[in-house]
Design a protein that fits this description.
three-stranded mixed sheet, alpha/beta, GMP Synthetase, Chain A, domain 3, 144 residues, single chain, 2 domains
Amino acid sequence: MPNIKLASDEIRYITLFETLTGAQIRDCIIDDDNSRIIFIVNPGYAGVAIGKNGINIKRIKKVIGKNIEIVEYADSIEQFVKNALYPARVKLVKVSTLPDNKKAVSITVDPVDKGFAIGKDGKNIQKIKLILKRYFDISNVMVA
């Protein structure tokens, strides 16, 4: 994992989330463009973070006033993408290097799930871009 620096707001949100849910939070990404906070939880803690019938998410959304999304951490790019796009069925994640030495990811999903994988106004793609840029220095994401 790269060195990730957290701002005071992110630390505050992580502390609040851990206190209210008991889940172990690895990271917090504030996405002001989509009025949401993305919490990266340790493997196996997604269920604890969400809570029965989403009660934890609803409670924290009410306190913070922003949408809350949970993504389970993974060491590999492929698994991280699958976790972030769940329940969409990801068939293939291909990492390539562009001519300017930047990395790009091409994600192939089941055709039935393509709309969900992209999300309304591309918000799920934006989420993947934020996560992959932060953890793997990947600048371009495409869904096929």
